[in-house]
Give the backbone structure.
Amino acid sequence: MAKYLPSVTRIVLYLLAASPPFGLAEESQTSAPNHHHDKNINSTSNKIRFLAIGDWGGTPHYPYSTHGQLRTAHGMARVAAASSSPASVNHDVDLDPSASFVLALGDNFYKSGVDERDVDIRFNETFEKVYGQEELQIPWYVCGGNHDHRGDITQQILLSKSKGTRWHFPDLNHRVVKEFTVRSPIKTAGAETFHTSTVKIEILMIDTIHLAGFHDAETELLYGEFHPLPGPSSSLQASTTLSWIESALQKSDADYLLVAGHYPVYSPCRHGNTQDLIENLDPLLKQHGVTAYLSGHDHCQFHYQYDSLDYILTGAGMNCCYNATMKEFLPEGGELKYIWEDYTNSHGDTGGFASFEVGKEEMKVIIHDQDGDKLYETVLLPRTEHQKRGVYKEFSF
């Protein structure tokens, strides 16, 4: 297993670079191309909603999509819509605002990404037409998967430069920050006033392929789709990526801090755990009080909790499901709170996704099937001031 440079060395390498290498977006608040920061969105609703979908990338041949992908897209549109009646998809009486954005968690174009010859047709047929519903004409924040790296992933990044596009993939690692204002009533003698406060959610979209490597088509054909990952192709690239992540985590003062990448840290499904992420990424997530780690890669859906961190996987964007053959390799002491996998798929399910509802006091996480019906719901709490400062006060270099 590849061992990376010590933390202090990684930081020095990052700071000495005249400009970040490709795939490492700068974190500056003024760096508009690779840092998306919205303030006071949906400020009248006291919450924001968004969706996440992984492994949704269609097929490399006509019609460039699958039945499960199309059906899941309609389910996403149903959940993304605003609702205000008991008959709504979430069965809430209170207003649910429409979704503000979507997280695309990699494997955006099967089986070997795109190149300059097919990027236009694949983008139009696999993405634009499939997710053409009005409710999904919102920003899509994207990270790359192993199948994307088999092609020319720069072509996916260049798509972000198109004027008016909802496709936001400015670099292999980038930050998304959303803020909204919450108005809370305060009853005083003779009058009712309101207290206003700001809630911030920050999402780091990271490239886990630089951290754990990937198999090319020939290797997969020889050893099978579920052969363990080879580790990063460049230890320097992996170290620099980790330094970017570490720096972004250190600077975050968000009430909710999410990190989203394609590979899971832990998974009970067929791909299993990602050892390089366990060794090098997971300690950073816990050290800096990350609210949850989101991923795809395994074509199942689950919620796993271990050592005070929540792991949400949604990798069923176009088909369902891998079975949980790697459950026994989850670490002792963790809790698999929910799993949607092959053995529980008795109703012909063809896909799925997740949705998130963020408020001042809590963030709801909901796992859906392809039609938008709720399979599972949990609640995550905002970060404490202690977590925002870093869980550990002492660092080992």
Q: What stands out?
A: The chain has a mean pLDDT of 86. The chain is about 20% helix and 25% strand. The two ends are 20 Å apart (CA to CA).
